[in-house]
User: Fold these one by one.
Assistant:
Number 1:
Amino acid sequence: MSIKNTEITGQIRKELEELTASIGKMMDVFRQIRQPIQESSDKVPTTTKQLERVTQQTEQATQKMLDIVESITNRESDIIKAVGQLKKTIQEGGVANNSGIEKLFSDIQANADANLNDTMVIMEALQFQDITSQQIEHAVSQLEDIDTKLKALLVTTGAKKDVSLADPVRKSRAFDPNANYAVDHTTHQQDVDELISNIRKP
Amino acid sequence: MPDLKILAVDDSPTMRRIIVNTLKRAGYEDVAEASDGKDALAKLKTDKFDFIITDWNMPEMDGLTFVTAVRSDPDLKGLPILMVTTRSVKEDIMQAIKAGVNNYIVKPFTPETIAEKITQVIASA
């Protein structure tokens, strides 16, 4: 073997030793990160379930509120009808043009109307439940995506061999990632109306 | 006010209930519900409706696919459709109009808006 060949062999051996040491260090890093990755992956289903529980519970609460709002609406509608009938009966009985009674009727009617309008405002506000549930669905979907990637990483690093990457129990989610409960939604709708009007312009 | 039979399509039970109550308050008493596009198409095959209010983001069949299906069905294509959705991006609105919706409301909506849009759509139909 020539001197040159011996030098090259020595150099290759040195580089191989460095490479082996480097791979060894990398394996140590993999061994160190496996546990946190596994722990993070394990936490995703729990967090997802908790978020889904938020949606379920706000929906249950909203449904209860709607029960009450509907009852109030029905009672107020009955009151308005009853006041109208009472007014007619009193007028037919000859007590018309009594300013005191007229005012009383007007006040009852105005209060009932105001209550009915308020129930509609409550109902309008309860739309938050659908909008926030879409925001939660988006967050859950992102978490599921992270979980899939973490599982893939565990398989790549050899920490897991029997991990199915696609979770078959995951439900189909429908949401708008930009869903937003805009406080001033009247202005928002005006922008939409203007856009539609422009689209339809000949 | 015209006597309309309305089909309200939304996957959220809360939203369906709010829409039904809003419509009743506006004087539209005959309202049926469907939970997504697929459910709505099944109801449209077995019952006669005069007006559709639909959401966009729904499982099984979304609102846009549903609108396209209605517009391509010879028996249903003339039905007025009002889309009520959270989607407010310009491109989405243009896509919905292109698919054949008659008007578009962004959630959250006011009771006045929904009544006004129904009147507008019926008047222009």
Number 2:
Amino acid sequence: MLKVESLNSGYGKLHVLYDVSVDCDKEEIVAVVGPNGAGKTTLLNSIFGIADIYSGSVKIDGEEITKLPAHVIARKGIAYVLQMINIFSELSVEENLRISASYAKIPDIDKKLREIFEIFPILSERRKQRAGTLSGGERQMLAISIGLIRDPKILLLDEPTAGLMPLYVDLIIKKINEIRKERGISVVLVEQNVKKALEIADRAYVLVSGQIIFRGSPSDLASEKEIMRLYLGMGE
Amino acid sequence: MQLPLNEIALFMTDFLALFGVYLIVTISLNIQRGLAGIPQFGLMFAIAGGAYITGNMATRIAVWILGIKTDLDPVIDCTAVLSMVNPMLNTQPMTSFILILIYLAIGATFGAVLGLIQVAPAIRLREDYLAITLLAFAEIINVIATAYKPLLGGAFGVQVPSVYGWAGGYRYGVATLAILVIAAISYLYAEYLERTPLGRTLKAIRENEVAAASLGKSLVKYRAIAIVIGSALCGMAGTLWTLYGEYVTPTYTRFYWTFLPWLMVLLGGIGSNRGALLGTAIFVALDKLIIYYKHSFEAFLPFDVVWLDYILLGIITAIILIYRPQGLLPERPYIPKDIRKRIEEKIKQF
Amino acid sequence: MGWVSKVEIISLGTLISALTWSSILSLMAIGITLLYRTTKVPNFAHASFVTTGVYSATIVSLMGFHPYLGMFLGFILGGLEGLVLFYAILEPLRRRRSSIFILMIATLSYDILLYGLLNVLADDLQTTYKILARMIYYSRLDFSIGGVPGVAVISLLALITTVILLYILLNRTTLGVALRACMENTALAQTLGINVSLMLLFSWFIAGGIAGVAGALLPFYTMCGPYIGMLYIAEMFCASILGGLDQIYGAPLGGFLIGFAKVALISVLASFVGPWITEYAPIIPLAAMAVALVLVPKGLVAIKIRRG
């Protein structure tokens, strides 16, 4: 589905990622974890054509998307939910969703809206409200919905639980898992909350200082005590 | 074509004088932008201020120091007053010298005050607001200078005492020398400033205002210091240029006294004094050559050559920004000697 | 008694003049604010966009049409100048992730370039058509409605039309909603498949065009030359800042405050202290801006929003 091969990328002269290879199969949740500043967001930015790629390739279903501009990549069945500032706070909840859907050329937007509101009923209640007035958890739900309404094959999520109350963290993680199962979407999940991410992930990558130092199943990762302790702050 | 020797000398004096004045201005810009990060788009304000205050006060002060008794107004009737002042100054090099120092002090002080006035409304604000305010305020100096007749006698300008008159035929040489001395002092001062704690603080603020503020460095205070130092230099540049030409009109323009210095600094590399030196030399030489060969151009062009200046310099700036934004001689990080030694030792250990 | 006499001091003519200038200034300021919203850069080249409008009116009148029709040519030429500035200079700089400060210098340098070109044009018009191309003034070609000069009506209409069209564009069209999305959150807009550079390019065309329209009206109000844009650039920014650089519809508010302050206030002052004070009129907008920056740096519109 998504295949990133020996990627070197960064911003201008600032080289961030070194020979990073990541892939994500159909209906799979892949977690990318690692300490702050490891380059997790840069990885997503590189996939989406926002960071500068020096070498390597990014493919979706075998189609090369390396170095395409972001707005073109957005039409390749891939949705990217940014970290933190990921909604139009001046616009209403419904306007946010409608803009996103209209640019994804969704034929029946109203039907899609109903689907989204079934997944996140709270958004239906807030549909006329200015998005800037939503609570942190509601914002994240809206942000994910903005991506979801585009009917993507792949969803890139950048720390969807950052700064949320534990209650919301559990809810969001649960929803991500449901979405994958019910709609058959592949998810690349970048997370600080390693424990939660590994609960739903099929496979995990650990990114440290711009390099992949581990790839494998969550259970294998859990047994790598050294990595868990040094880089992920888990363990004793 | 054979150039007569004294014509070459004249060309060189003229070149060096303009170079010196512009060097003071570009050094000032380097301190304000390069060191403190202030987007000074209104350099012209303090330069014109220094020039105009010299025009207004120079004759008045000379009359007072020389003890001349007259009822004539030193600005409106400057020609008549100067016909008394200049012959006396021509025989008194020492008095002339003291006068130059007084004028410079006045130019520097007035420039510094103008700088503070100019930056005051936006001193706490972001870079873009600051740039707009500085530019907008600079635009009013000519409005005032033209409207307020007692300042410079209106649009026609005013003459100032010939403080280099005692040197006779060498007066322009001596005037140029004076400019170059001040320019050299400014250059050395800027180099020194970079290495002081003040210079380092300014750089820290330039790089990250928030981080510097969190270390207890007051943004307002240090911006004000940089503006005062820079504007004082600009004021002196205005004074020196007025004394060199012995005449001043309210015609200092944004193109020559804000845009050109910016271009010089950009070409040389923002924050680098060597760069400012190089950029200034290149542009002043270009300017002088264009003026010198203007007549040969004019035959081909259906319009005034001066507009070609604007068009070309506009394009050159854009090209520098896109292809060489760091300039020809970019700023190098300054690392104090003791720290450099420690780093070298560490490297040896590995 | 005092109130009545003060009202009489401001003659109807002064009020009309203030209205005209406010409308034209607002048109100039709208573009600056729009560009600040989309590209986050104060556009110093706006001066030359306006001057281009002046010479559009001149060219149209030399072609035998009424100089008011210069508004249309001004819109196209000003728009094209904006287009070129963004596409040839700002977009490459943006792609290099240049700082806002570099972008500001870039607009300044483009202004200098255009200023040179406009002067060449003026020289050329002067020699070719034997007109005073540095003293463009069309007041005598203006019509009048019951003693009110046409330019007052046309400027106000141009401003109202512009604001309405801009509102429809930004709120009722897909293109406009996308543009608003870019203004608010460039990164997010990008991830939704909106071509951000194309949207910004579009905003530069619109803003340049509006400046061109304002410029074409200017020779009916005052004597113009190639310097005219530079003369008013400080005032344009004052209006824009007073309205709030972040508030598109704040620009007309700033424009009217500055315009009336300058024209009407100075005439009141003149009647008290003497006509010499009118020469200092350009200081009023700056003073207003200085006060605004200290008291409400986000602009006047921000006050209302904070309360509401």
